[in-house]
Amino acid sequence: MSIKTFQYKKQFKLESGKRLKKLNIAYHTFGKLNADKSNVVWVCHALTANSDVFDWWKGLFGEKDLFNREEYFIVCANILGSPYGTTNPLSVNETTKQPYYLSFPKISIRDMVEAHKLLAQHLAIENIEVLIGGSLGGQQALEWSVSEADRIKNLIVLATNAQHSAWGIAFNESQRLAIETDRTFYTQEAKGGQKGLKTARSMALLSYRTYNCYADKQAEASNEVIDLFKSSSYQNYQGEKLVKRFNAYSYWYLTKTMDSHNLGRGRTSVEAALASIKANTLVIGIASDILFPTHEQKFIAKHIEEAEYHEIDSLYGHDGFLLEVEKLENIISKFLREKSLEKKQSSLQVA
Fold first, then answer.
1. DSSP element (H, E) containing 237
2. What share of the chain is helix, strand, coil (3-state, %, to 5)?
3. Is 318 a catalytic residue?
4. Which of 82, 135, 260, 288 is catalytic?
5. Confidence of residue 73 (pLDDT cuts 50, 70, 90)
6. Would residue 289 show up in a list of annotated catalytic residues for this protein?
7. Would the annotation count 201 as a binding residue?
8. Which residues form the active site (predicted)?
9. What is the DSSP letter of 170?
10. What residue spans define the domains of the chain?
């Protein structure tokens, strides 16, 4: 399915008070909306992912997977600030007729959600049967479920939090510092900051994976190696891989966006915001996750009425939410079956 673009031609007001004169939202849809519009699955993607969820979340999303185009109308939008077609720092500023680069306004998780709402309106989507996201995607899903509690029927969040932690912000700031040490980041060109971005990605991987994962996947077979280690090669490879598909300006801004996440901002408290969520909620944590430790997911589940919490073991740490698809499919399918059965039983009782 090819990517589509929705252009919002009015001014888009950001939480900061700044405005974008127009907003482009690039997105994918899979399947068809059914007659009563009750089969919508909306995916909120993570930091460097994109709207083609069938590509990066295989095993959960695919022709024969749990979320497939035969049963569901699946929507995934590239987030505000992303370099995959939605308005971002490389987009042209309507005022200057030049790319924004570092003049791009700061954006928040709430801004991303407001953009999702505009796309949902454009697609004539009233209610969302399943809203799902992990990491930064989970932050978006939580914010949306607070701001439009009646719209979301089932909420599934993985490896995420209700307020970004000091630990997570420190990781992000360290990555931004790496980008900022690359003098080309200030040259106002699309390839600016690439060396810094490569370094930032290498740093990020250490928070996405685990000691045991590196020990298992990158250990040397020989005791004689004194240079050119597998783990060194892996860090370089992953950094270069991101540079080929992303840009330093989007990465810099999006990490700041993640830092801004706080469900309690402008509300009574984080706890009260979570308590306002009405969706049937499934929260999944990963035991080995050091970036979003499981106490953050337990906190979410504790404060959402009747939320379910499940925890999985994974060698991969935070990235387990992308890689442990068989374990996730078992938990998520069971949750959705039970909620569907409860819905049917409730309808019969009313009848």
1. helix 230-245
2. 45, 15, 40
3. yes
4. 135
5. very high
6. yes
7. yes
8. 135, 289, 318
9. H
10. 4-164+263-350, 169-257
